[in-house]
């Protein structure tokens, strides 16, 4: 029998059986919140995104690419990338 370390709940993704969508792990969403907060100060005058749009964009970015590159996230939004890309 193989020993494996259990994954903490905050790192587990959740699957919604009704919609078929995968919800990111809570730890990822915390990273998205931090990224959105850091980016909001830099982007508030440069883009038409409000705080809620920026948060959704950060959540999508973190889900697809991770939360370790706020500069790339900001650059994509400055260059006109749609918030959900």
Sum this structure up briefly.
The protein is mainly alpha-helical and 85 residues long. It has helices at 26-43, 51-65, 70-78; strands spanning 14-15, 22-23. The longest helix has 18 residues, at 26-43.
Care to describe what's here?
With 85 residues, this protein is mainly alpha-helical. The protein has one domain (15-78). It is built from 3 helices and 2 strands, in the order E-E-H-H-H. The protein has helices at 26-43, 51-65, 70-78, and strands at residues 14-15, 22-23. Strands 1-2 form a two-stranded antiparallel ribbon. The model has no long low-confidence stretch (mean pLDDT 77).
Secondary structure elements and pairings:
Layout (H helix, E strand, L loop, with lengths): L13 E2 L6 E2 L2 H18 L7 H15 L4 H9 L7
Antiparallel strand pairs: 1-2
Keywords:
single chain; 85 residues; mainly alpha; two-stranded antiparallel ribbon; 3 helices
